[in-house]
Amino acid sequence: MERKLPPPAWVRPRPPPPQREPEEPRSQSFFSYGFFSFALVVGLVLGLGASWAMGPLPERNTEPFQLKQQDRNHYMIAIALEYEHSGDLHRALEKLVALRPLGDPLQALADAACELASSDYINNESGVKALRMAARMYTAQGRSGCAEPLLPAEDLPDKPAAASDPAAPLPSSTPPPTKTPSRRASRATATLRAVATSVPQRTFSPLPASTFCDTVDRAVIEVKIVDYLGRGIPGQRIRVRWGDEENVFLSGLKPERGTGYADFQMDEGISYSIDMPGASDALRADLTTGRCYTESGRESLKSFRVTFRADS
């Protein structure tokens, strides 16, 4: 008998084929993805609709200079109303400067009043009164605008007319002899009148000027207007004069340099004097730029620092 030899050891039996797991029906997978997409779209639509119905979120932490032009105009009129009741010109100017106008903040108030006076803002009595208060504020500081002629004339109380009787006797300078004048009738009656008063003008004293040499700020007069505690005061008029010319500008128009800061660009070979018109005498020393050298040895033009401090 033949004997069957076993297969060699290097011959291995073929493993059975792997069994595949049963697949899920495609219709069920398609239905789940489609339902999820549909629910997502419906949720977004409902969320947007609800937010639109409830209105946008209120704007918070908005700086005054970030307001729109129309809102800026109303904000400046509100500042004028506050000044009418408080009389604090310093605080009112600080708020006007916080709006970061391109030029004079008081002139910006006059322009805002002009723009509102040209609109339906004056169709009601409250708007007319507000613009009159704003006009009183900027005209008292030497500014003008087009709002004044656009405002209606202010109604003055009519004086009561004396009743006349043609049959009554003409008044005589002396009383009748049969009537004895009483003491009460002979006394003069005092009439009280309200006199409009203005906020007293602050006075300032110039401190000695100092010099500095810088390659960036060349031939510049840096001015600081401060109170007696050293805090900056915006909106103060500063005047620089040379020869027959002069230039008047305001403090606080560069808030990044300080609320009481202002500067003026000098020309070489010209002598300048500086003061605060109506509030301070001129600095005794005239300011003239010239060649100077920085600490690093670089050549530049000399600059000055001037401080006006409030007397009280």
Topology:
Layout: H1 26-54, H2 69-86, H3 89-98, H4 105-117, H5 125-140, H6 147-150, H7 183-186, E1 204-206, E2 210-213, E3 220-226, E4 237-242, E5 245-250, E6 261-265, E7 271-275, E8 287-288, E9 291-293, E10 299-310
Parallel strand pairs: 3-10
Antiparallel strand pairs: 1-10, 2-10, 3-6, 4-5, 4-7, 7-8, 9-10
Helix pairs in contact: 2-3, 2-4, 2-5, 4-5
Describe the structure.
The chain has helices at residues 26-54, 69-86, 89-98, 105-117, 125-140, 147-150, 183-186; strands at 204-206, 210-213, 220-226, 237-242, 245-250, 261-265, 271-275, 287-288, 291-293, 299-310. The radius of gyration is 41 Å and the shape is elongated. With 312 residues, it is of the alpha+beta class. The chain has 7 helices and 10 strands. Strands 1, 2, 3, 6, 9 and 10 form a 6-stranded mixed beta sheet that branches. Strands 5-4-7-8 form a 4-stranded antiparallel beta sheet, with no helix packed on it. Helices cover 30% and strands 17% of the residues. Among the domains are: 64-150, no CATH class; 204-310, Immunoglobulins (Immunoglobulin-like).
